[in-house]
Write a structure and sequence with these properties.
With 173 residues, the chain is mainly α. The chain has six helices and no strands. Helix 2 runs parallel beside helix 5 and helix 4 runs antiparallel to helix 5. The longest helix is centred in the first third of the chain and has 37 residues. The protein is elongated. The two termini are 34 Å apart.
Length: 173
């Protein structure tokens, strides 16, 4: 079981690292666009590429953020539930797991269809749409895995992999 836990934690951390790399790419694209303007050059599609990197950064960060307690959570409502908190958490993780599984399924499906029909973006770059959509699909699958992981762990052990945010901890005292 520890090998599975280690693998999943590595997967979530890898998603966070990839999200950070996409964030750096956004910076580099913006700087390259600024330099191009200053030198009288054109960087066609720069805003589109930055948008693709933003989607990659967002979707790859979701699972990492979930397990680090940085998503908006319903902590106030769960704390008010007292001894029924576990039922509330189970409900929330079940809804999250179902919703993200649905999202992942259709993200994969739309990516496959974009590839099949050779869809391209409407911007100057005319990038095949399946390329940025793969980022969304992989990130959505990673988030669905994180929700199912936390739901199963909650049902089996009574705890989750979500670390409480330090802000939440300081207010709880």
């Amino acid at each position: 079981m520890t090998a599975i836990r280690r693998t999943l934690d590595t997967l979530y951390t890898a998603g966070g690292v990839i999200a950070a790399l996409f964030t750096v790419l956004i910076l580099l694209i913006i700087v390259a666009q600024m330099v191009a303007r200053w030198t009288g050059q054109v960087f066609p599609g720069a805003t589109d590429y930055a948008g693709y990197c933003m989607a990659g950064a967002s979707f790859f960060a979701f699972a990492y953020a979930l397990n680090h307690g940085t998503h908006i959570r319903v902590s106030i409502a769960l704390n008010a539930m007292g001894r029924f908190r576990r039922w509330g958490e189970t409900f929330c993780f079940a809804v999250g797991a179902a919703t993200t599984t649905f999202l992942a399924r259709y993200a994969i499906k739309v990516t496959q269809e974009s590839y099949k029909f050779k869809d391209v973006s409407q911007g100057q770059d005319a990038t095949p749409l399946w390329i940025p959509q793969v980022l969304m699909a992989v990130g959505a699958v990673l988030l669905a895995i994180a929700f199912w992981d936390n739901l199963i762990r909650l049902l089996a052990t009574g705890g989750t992999n979500v670390r409480e945010d330090l802000v939440d901890q300081s207010h709880a005292e």
